[in-house]
Design a protein that fits this description.
This protein is an all-alpha fold. It is built from one helix and no strands.
Length: about 40
Amino acid sequence: MAAPLLYDVGFIATAGAQLSVTVVATFGLYTGIAGRTESAV
């Protein structure tokens, strides 16, 4: 009974980590583009 629960927790943690990395990467890319556009103008 504990094994599936442990697996679910690990899966949620992994999915959360991947989601965080994706959000940070997207935000960083957007910030970089916006910063370059502002400095260019």
